[in-house]
Write a structure and sequence with these properties.
Shape: globular
Distance between the termini: 35 Å
Strand order of the largest sheet: 1-2-4-3-5-6-7-8
Oligomer: single chain
Radius of gyration: 18 Å
Number of helices: 9
Structural class: alpha/beta
CATH superfamily: Alpha/Beta hydrolase fold, catalytic domain
Length: 300
Amino acid sequence: MPLDTQFNEILAMFRAMPALAEMPLEMVRNAPIPINPNPTPVDEVTNRMIPGAAGQIGARIYRSGTPGNLPLLLFMHGGGFVVGGLDTHDEMARVLTAETGCVTVSVDYRLAPEHPYPAAPDDCFAALHWAASNAGALGADPGRIAVAGDSAGGNLAAVMALKARDERGPALKAQVLIYPVVDMTAPFLPAPDGEYYVINPRERDFFHNSYLPDHSRLREPNASPGLADLRGLPPALLVTAEYDPLCAQGEDYAEKLQRAGVDATLHRYDGAVHGFASFPVPMGKVGLMRAAAWLKERLA
């Protein structure tokens, strides 16, 4: 279907920005982003420091419900492993928390290029262990843990599922991967109309080279989970967008999971662009609510 008109204003903002590779890093990180002016209410939000892989990192903990036996969700933000943080993805974490009844731990993992791969997955895995070990104090059930993330965060959520399986990590009940990058070697494909929206190949290269400058490691499972052995992973939800260069690899990952015997569900949003679930547009809220309903069912 055609590109949905609800994205026109947001796409105009992206087109007006300078090329990311030509901007100073701090300017890239401080670039304006579309944020929901009316945050979804939850019962409690707490910022704190938790152990990362190489020292303390930030986390934001959300709760919606009476503490005691709530499901536990580890959330990882997107941003190409270079930008993004607790504030840019506050609304996504709020919606997932409110709609699932989870205690959500949003992880402020270290960013590239100052901290290249594998700093991000190492931090997130340390955060997963911390969250599971402290589930009781958080008012959560250590037997009902899930991971979720969007874009680069979707990559990290998929990697957490692999690491939890292979490295004696906490057992996971589900993984929610929202337009994830799962194969660093995959072609970066244009939209059906031949255009690139939100992210173009040059920007993809900027993010990849910042995060993983050693291209000999692109095929490692913790960088490209789509190239890993996927057997024995927890149920997965893949959310894709028709006008997203990552659409094909996300849908290919869903097929690979299914072929490996994993319960994998695909929600594709026609007319949508990369990042839509974090944008203050109707389709973004619908996508998050639908993902939350899927997750709530798996954590019941």
